[in-house]
Design a protein that fits this description.
Layout lengths: L7 H16 L4 H7 L4 H5 L1
Helix pairs in contact: 1-2
């Protein structure tokens, strides 16, 4: 069974969510974990 890759729109939405959380004062690593993404995936 193939691994489902997120669409570009979904990726942008998740990155925006991280930016919003960071804007509210949350550390970057905590914001990344909050949306369910690994740190390595975020930086990729």
């Amino acid at each position: 069974m193939a691994i489902k890759r997120p669409k570009p729109e979904e990726i942008v939405l998740e990155l925006r969510q991280v930016e919003v959380l960071m804007g509210h004062g949350m550390p970057r690593i905590d914001a990344i974990r909050r949306i369910g993404m690994t740190e390595q995936t975020y930086y990729r």
